[in-house]
Every structure is written in C-alpha cells, then in structure tokens.
Specification:
The chain has 6 helices and no strands. By secondary structure, it is mainly α. It is rod-shaped, with a radius of gyration of 25 Å.
C-alpha cells in the first residue's frame, strides 16, 4: 500500500515537471515570436527610410558645393544596414545610419536654396513621418525584448532557455553623444 503512494507521488511529480517544461517552452516560443514580429515592424519602417534616402541624396546632390563626405557617409551607412547579417549587427548599423543622417540634416541647414525646393520639403516631410514611426517601433521592440530577456534570464526560465537554446536579444540604445543637442545658430 505504501509503495503505491510513492509510485503515485513519483508519477505526479513527473507529470508536473513535464507540464512545467511544456508551459515554459511554449512561453519562450511565444515571447520569441513577439520579438521577431516586433523586429519585422522595425525592419519595415527602416526599409521605408532607406528607400527615401536615395531620393534625398539625389536632391541634396543638386546643391552646388554640397559636402560629398556627408553624402558618402549616408550611403555607406545605408549599405551597412543592408549587409548586416544578425539582428545585433543591424541594431549597430542603424545607430551608424542615425548618426550619418543627422550629419546630413545639420549640413543641409547651410543651404537655404536647397530647403526652398518643393522636392526637398516633400522628402523631409516623408522622412519626418518615417522617423516618428521608427521611434515608435523601436520603443515597442525594446519593450518586447525586455519581456523576452526577463523570461530567459529569470529563474526557473533560465533553465529552460539554456536547455532549448534561447539567448537574450539586443535592444536599441541611444547613440553615443545623442544626449547633446545640436547647436542652432540663427545669426547667419
């Protein structure tokens, strides 16, 4: 009689352990899928931005004497994004592109004839809307990554994550120097 209680107890423990593994695994799969979906949304808005850039660069090239180094930096940063293999490399390439695009937009301020063209104004309006979408999608991505990373790093999820090969994902961080506002000079 005592033996059957032990047997039932052992079976119950095994069943509970199996249910916990299934439940934990399914949670990890769901959260990983949420990260992948959020990343796809980020990629979509970045692709829109990168599709706008050739038009912006061509419009800016029309300004006589425009700094070629700035245009080259934007083009190279766009290429880095497109050639990035992993999500972490894409996050880093996005930061480089943000920096190059910021330099381009600051440089444009010195060319009032460029700012006066309708094509440039239209592109800037589209780019502004895209930048707002990027900001929203990056924030949403970071929130999903936070939840996923907590699931993979907290006990007991860390055990399942290690068993099934789930690693933490990189999030977006502010670019170095972004805490410093660019100077605006109206005296010129």
């Amino acid at each position: 009689m005592k033996r059957s209680y032990w047997l039932y107890g052992a079976v119950a423990v095994v069943v509970l352990l199996v249910l916990w593994v299934f439940s934990g695994y399914n949670t990890l799969v769901t959260q990983r899928q949420n990260v992948d979906t959020a990343w796809s949304n980020v990629e979509t808005v970045y692709q829109r931005r990168f599709d706008l850039i050739p038009n912006l660069v061509n419009t800016v090239k029309g300004a006589a004497g425009f700094e070629q180094d700035t245009l080259i930096a934007v083009t190279e940063a766009r290429t880095q994004w497109q050639n990035a293999g992993s999500r972490g490399e894409q996050v880093a390439a996005a930061g480089e592109f943000d920096s190059a695009l910021s330099r381009l937009l600051v440089t444009v301020e010195a060319y009032p004839q460029l700012q006066a063209t309708q094509a440039f104004r239209d592109l800037m309006t589209q780019l502004e809307g895209t930048e707002n979408r990027i900001s929203t999608e990056r924030r949403d991505y970071n929130m999903v990554v936070r939840d996923y990373n907590l699931a993979v790093k907290r006990f007991p999820g860390v055990i399942l994550a290690a068993m099934f090969g789930y690693d933490a994902e990189p999030g977006f961080e502010a670019s170095e120097g972004s805490e410093i506002a660019p100077p605006v000079n109206f005296d010129e």
